[in-house]
Automatic annotation (TrEMBL):
GO terms for biological process: actin filament depolymerization. One of its GO terms (cellular component) is actin cytoskeleton. It comes from the Eukaryota. The keyword Endoplasmic reticulum does not apply. This is Cofilin. Belongs to the actin-binding proteins ADF family.
Length: 112
């Protein structure tokens, strides 16, 4: 987000598949949006899969004003992105860990 909180700026891009490196780049006191190609294998018979994720990172110790701006901007940004297959919101690293996201993207919807 720009200093005046009016423009979303692409700060970094990466083609790395290293999820731990992605998590390490999330700042402890600043909010971020991220789009990530999440590669995983939940069933060896199905092989490798991927989901395009929209991630909202709002750590607990980020400034309240920043959290409010990100919350207000999220829906408009999300609607402008095509191909997003899952959304993830995180306030701490465990909420965006590989295992947590894997569980979310591999959940089967109930047909009840």
């Amino acid at each position: 987000m720009s200093q005046d909180k009016k423009t979303i700026i692409v700060e970094k891009t990466s083609e790395s598949e290293d999820h731990d490196a992605f998590i390490a780049d999330l700042p402890e006191t600043e909010c971020r949006f991220a789009v990530k190609d999440f590669l995983y294998e939940s069933d060896p018979a199905e092989g490798a899969r991927n989901k395009i994720l929209f991630i909202t990172w709002t750590p607990d110790n980020a400034p309240i004003r920043s959290k409010m701006v990100f919350a207000a901007s999220k829906d408009a940004l999300r609607r402008s992105l095509n191909g997003i297959q899952a959304e993830v919101q995180g306030t701490e690293h465990s909420e965006v860990s590989y295992e947590t996201i894997l569980e979310k993207v591999t959940k089967r919807k109930s047909t009840n």
